[in-house]
Structure formats: C-alpha cells, structure tokens
Design the sequence.
C-alpha cells in the first residue's frame, strides 16, 4: 500500500476537515465518527478507504491530479461508513477493524445518531467540490449519483436482512442483493470520478460495469473471509456470518448444490433464531464437503477479470498511467488473488 499512502493521507485530511467542529461540547459527537473511521489514532488499521481510493485514482488517471476530487472521495467514504455504523447495530456486531463498534462503546441511541450525522456530513462534503473548481452542474449530477446509490444500498440491506429467515434464496437473488448493497457504491465511486472529471457517456458506462463487477468480486471474497478467515485477519468475530444466519454466497451455493438429505439438514440448522457454536461448525463442515469455496473463488476470478477488462476505457482517456496501474493492483489485492493479475496494457 506504500504507493497509496499519500492518497490515503489526503483523503483522511479531507474527511477531518468535514468533521471539524469548534464547539467543545460537540467534540464527543464528532469523536464517535472519528473513532469509527479510525481517525482518532494513527492510520494503521483504520480501514481500506477502498471506495474513495477508486474515485481518486480514476479521477487522477483522467485529470492528472487528484486534488479536486478529494471532497467527492470524502463524501463517498462518509456515506459508506454511515451505513456501517447502522449495519453494526442491526447485526449486533461487537467489533469492526479489530476495535469495539460504536454502539458497543456508546450505546445504540448515540450510535444511530452518529450514523445519521455522518450521512449529513457526507452531503456537506459534496458541496466542497465547488471550492475546488468543479462546475455546479457536475456537482449536482454527482450528488444525484450518491443519492441513488444510497437508496440502493438501503434496498440491499433490506434484502440481506430478510434473507436471514429464508431458505429459498438462490444465487441469482443473492447477486441481485450484492449489486445493490455493495456494487451500487462501487459503481457510484467509479462513475462519479468521470462525472466530475471527463463526463463522456461511453466512459461512464464502462465505469459503472467496472464498479459492478468489482463489487461482486469484493463481496464474494468478503463472504469467503467471513467463513474461513481469522479474526486476526478480518477484525471480525470468526464465522459470525454463519452464526447470524447470513445468506452469504458460500451458504447460498451450498443450499443449491446439496442433496435433498443435506439440504434438509441445512434447513433444520437455519431454522434456529441463531446458530450455536456446534451448529456453526456443522454448517462449515457441510460447506467444505460440498467444495463451495472453490466455486466462489472461481466466481471471484471471473468478476475480477471483467472489472480489469472494463478499465481499458479509462486507459483510452488517461492523462496519467500510474494511477491506473495502482487501481489495477488494488482490484487484485482486495479480491484475494494469489498471484498478480494478467497485464491489461
């Protein structure tokens, strides 16, 4: 991540500027947001900043400099993290990024309010684009993209929660949920860079497809880590997705591939309100027996290659090559590739 550090620092500086408050009595309110973002300490372990990085790298590739795009990047990250604060409450997750979650430290009411405040702050960040010389019509279009993406993320979260109590969720429905909950904000970040940079229809369409495929690959890898990853690596409770009856892609594929007898076992296990440790272990054993991890990793590879393919559209318009190479490496590293992606130049 060494080559990304200057960009990460600039993004964090912009976020701090949005969340700065001179009123002493309100410092604890903004302190909750800064704590969640990891900005109350050194950068190490504060989160990937993946969505804002997508935006600044694409914008920098198109414009030659990232500076004017930083308010948009901050808006994307604040919007994303407002959903995470609420998501932690809804899932009752005690930890995120190796730290206690906001609700588990300050309580649910304050966490809900901090999440709402972070959403409002993301809107203020959008308006900072005009100070950087971005035209008003482009700012308005970027705001529209963010609003549409936010609605889709909430729709996806509705579907994700509703799937927990269902055993008829197939892989197609699951991918539709992921397209909203994860892919919408990836696409908004990618397309948004073009909107405030070089607004051309073919470029925007390619970047929407890039974000959609990258989102599917990223979420599928996250699903793998949610079952087979360790707390030390993910910063979350091990196998918590199974315990919470989340219909992640490995589980959905297991239901699809299982024999009638094994499917009946899965349905019986998932009939409980929450899965005890012995049931969680049993589910993971079934997933291993059905070799669903291999299927998921193949799917990740397909979406990864499609995403990298779509970046050709950026190359055709690029003013700088290094940001695009950094973006390709980011796609590879955040989707669990064991080897370098094939060169797309």
Sequence:
């Amino acid at each position: 991540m060494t080559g990304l550090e200057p960009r990460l620092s600039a993004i964090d500086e912009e976020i701090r500027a949005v969340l700065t408050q001179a009123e002493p009595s309100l410092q604890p309110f903004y302190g909750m947001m800064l704590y969640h973002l990891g900005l109350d300490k050194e950068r190490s372990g504060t989160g990937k900043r993946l969505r804002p990085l997508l935006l600044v790298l694409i914008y920098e590739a198109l414009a030659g400099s990232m500076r004017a795009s930083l308010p948009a990047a901050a808006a994307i990250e604040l919007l994303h993290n407002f959903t995470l604060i609420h998501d932690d409450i809804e899932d009752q997750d005690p930890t995120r990024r190796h730290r206690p979650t906001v609700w588990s430290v300050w309580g649910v009411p304050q966490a809900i309010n901090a999440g709402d405040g972070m959403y409002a702050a993301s809107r203020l960040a959008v308006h900072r684009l005009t100070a950087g010389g971005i035209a008003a019509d482009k700012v308005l279009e970027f705001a529209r993209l963010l609003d549409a993406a936010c609605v889709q993320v909430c729709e996806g979260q509705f579907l994700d929660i509703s799937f927990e109590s269902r055993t008829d969720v197939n892989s197609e429905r699951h991918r539709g949920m992921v397209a909203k909950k994860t892919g919408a904000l990836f696409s908004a970040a990618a397309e948004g860079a073009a909107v405030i940079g070089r607004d051309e229809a073919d470029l925007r369409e390619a970047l929407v497809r890039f974000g959609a495929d990258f989102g599917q690959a990223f979420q599928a890898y996250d699903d793998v880590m949610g079952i087979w990853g360790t707390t030390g690596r993910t910063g979350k409770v091990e196998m918590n997705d199974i315990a919470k009856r989340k219909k992640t892609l490995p589980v959905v594929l297991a239901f699809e591939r299982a024999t009638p007898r094994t499917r009946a076992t899965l349905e019986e296990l998932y009939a409980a309100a929450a899965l005890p440790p012995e049931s969680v272990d049993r589910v993971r054993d079934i997933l291993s027996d059905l070799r669903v991890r291999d299927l998921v990793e193949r799917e990740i590879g397909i979406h990864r290659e499609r995403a990298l393919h779509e970046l050709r559209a950026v190359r055709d318009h690029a003013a700088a090559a290094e940001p695009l190479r950094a973006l390709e490496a980011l796609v590879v590293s955040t989707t669990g590739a064991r080897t370098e992606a094939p060169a797309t130049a």
Remarks:
- Residues 2-334 form a domain with the Farnesyl Diphosphate Synthase fold (CATH 1.10.600.10).
- The first helix runs from residue 5 to 18.
